[in-house]
Design a protein that fits this description.
The chain is an alpha/beta fold and 267 residues long. Helix content is 30%, strand content 27%. The longest helix is centred in the middle third of the chain and has 14 residues, at 149-162.
Length: 267
Amino acid sequence: MTGVPAGRTGLGAYGVSRTAGGALVLDDVTLAPRSGALTGLLGPNGSGKSTLLRVLAGVLAPDTGVVTLDGDRLGAVARRAVARRVAVVEQHADTQVDLTVAEAVRLGRVPHRRAWSASTAADEEAVRSALARTGLTALAARSWRTLSGGERQRVQIARALAQEPRELLLDEPTNHLDVRHQLDLMALVAGLRLTCVMALHDLNLAALYCDHVVVLHEGGVVAAGPVEEVLTERLIADVYGVHAAVTHPGPDGRPHIRFLGPAPGDG
C-alpha cells in the first residue's frame, strides 16, 4: 500500500483525507503512533482531532489514504477483531440503565464473547484486572449514577482495558474534570504503557505527560515530535493565535507554557 512503511505493525493512518459537508476536515494526515507510548493529538477546535480518532477507530472511512492495523487495511479486518485490539474512550459517557461499576466495565468483554454467552473465567479476570489497574476495586458495586465525573471517566478507561487492547484512543477525556482529576487521569493513562493516542486541549497536560505530540491545524499536520521540540512559542502563536512564554524548568526538559494573551496581529 502506497505510503505505508514495509513491515509496519500496530495502528496507523497514512495520507488520510476526509471531507464533511463539503469542507475538508482532514488533509493528507499521516499518524503512526509509537508502540507503548502516549501520543498527544493537539490543535484548536475544528482542527480535525475527533475526526482523526474516529477514522483511526474505523468508525469513519477516509476519502483518500489508508488506515492499517498490522499492515492490513482496517476496513478489511472484521469489526470484532478490531474491537479486540483497539479501544475507544469518548469525551462523555452516560447510560439510562442502572449499572454498577463492575457491570459497566464488563461491557468491555463483549468483543470477546459470543452472543448471549455467559461470562467466562477469562472475562472475569480481565474485569478484575481492569478495576485494579484503575483503582476502582473498592467501587465495583457502586451505581454508575452515583459517580463523579472523574470516577466515570476512570470507569470508561477500565471498560476499555477490559477489552485487553493494544491500542487505546481517547477523545479529550479530561474535559469538564477538575485539576486533581485531570492529573490523576493523565497519570493513569501515561502509566498504562499501551499505544495511546489522546486528543487534548490543555497544552501543559500534554507537555507533562505525553511522550510525543502531533499538532493539527485546519485539518493538516503542522508539527510532530517530542513535546520539548514541538511546543514552541512560534508554533503556539501560529496555530492557536496566542502569545506564550515557554520555559523548560524540569530536569527532563519538559516545557511549561504560560499564556500571555492574543498573539500580536490577532483579534
